[in-house]
Amino acid sequence: MARALVTGAGIRLGRAMALYLAKRGYDVAVHYATSEQPAAETVAEVQALGRKAVALHADLLDEAQVLTLLPRAAEALGGPITCLVNNASIFEYDNLQSATRQSWDRHLDSNLRAPFVLTQAMAEQGLQPGTDEAGEPVAIGLIVNMVDMRVRKLTPEFMTYTIAKMGLWALTRTSAQALSPAIRVNAIGPGPTMQGHRQSQEHFNAQRANTVLERGSNPSDITAALGYFLDAHAVTGQLLCVDGGQHLGWKTPDVLGLE
Fold first, then answer.
1. Between the CA of residue 81 and those of 33, 34, 124, 143, 255, what are the distances in Å?
2. Where are any strands of DSSP class E within 33-122?
3. Is residue 252 part of a domain?
4. Nearest Cα to Cα of residue 122 among 66, 89, 80, 76
């Protein structure tokens, strides 16, 4: 039986991925921190697709709550979680000068420590690989970490957030090594996909237009990447930047006008 836990699944990309997984035959545990009503709506939509769903609250800044989240999801859905999407994230501005211990802790705890603890819980379920027609192992479990295209294009902006996401990318690769062949671990790096809460429409449009492809990504592009990882049984430890090529941006003052 396919069972998924998606963190931050009440809204935005988390919701899109939860609904996509339901369409792919997964029962879904919808984690939320503050979006109780949207999470309930996501649950109702999953159930309307004929799948089992439950909303689970947890503050990812509270490790005691993180420790119980995946076991609670498995109990509610009636068996081990086979797909974990570490999507929930805190994204707040700081830089080297303005970063504080609080901004460090908020970003590292939500974007790195919580996924690490949930990865440990996924491993502790004891999933065993299946076997394909050729007699080779097939991973039963899949973890998808939502990283950020910033790990491919470093800047000094959003400093502690970026450090946390760099750590999550390292966790993706090292846990892919540690958990094979039973569990595959991959990452998605979104670019300008959904307008930020503090971002103007004009700025968001300009951000999308100034990527290499002159467009951003849509939620359907993110779920397509998730679908690829579901189906690609030989892929682990990989990052797909779904960002309109934003991480390839090269038209900077040091190269423009030079021959």
1. 20, 23, 11, 10, 49
2. 53-57, 83-86
3. no
4. 80
Mean pLDDT of the chain: 95
Cβ(18)–Cβ(46) below 8 Å: yes
Cα atoms in the Cβ-side hemisphere of radius 13 Å centred on 196: 16
Q: What is the pLDDT of residues 14-65, one digit of tens each?
A: 999 999 999 999 999 999 999 999 999 999 999 999 999 999 999 999 999 9
Q: What is the pLDDT of residues 202-222, one digit of tens each?
A: 888 888 888 899 898 999 999
Residue with tokens 């502790």: 124
Torsion of CA 38, 222, 22, 84, to 10 degrees: -90
Count of domains observed in the chain: 1
The whole-number pLDDT of residue 129 equals 96
Question: Residue 259 above 70 pLDDT?
Answer: no
Nearest-10 crossing angle of helices 159-179, 101-108: 30
Strands 27-32 and 53-57: parallel
Residues 6 or more apart from 177 whose CB is under 8 A from it?
237
Q: Residue 132 sits in which domain range?
A: 3-242
CATH code, 43: 3.40.50.720
Q: Give a yes or no: residue 77 inside a domain.
A: yes
Q: Which amino acid is at 8?
A: G
| 152 in a structural domain | yes
User: Do residues 52 and 27 make contact, with C-beta atoms less than 8 angstroms apart?
Assistant: yes
Contacts of 25 (CB under 8 A, 6+ apart): 2, 51
CA distances for 242 relative to 14, 141, 150, angstroms: 15, 23, 12
Domain-embedded: residue 149: yes
Residue 90 DSSP class: -
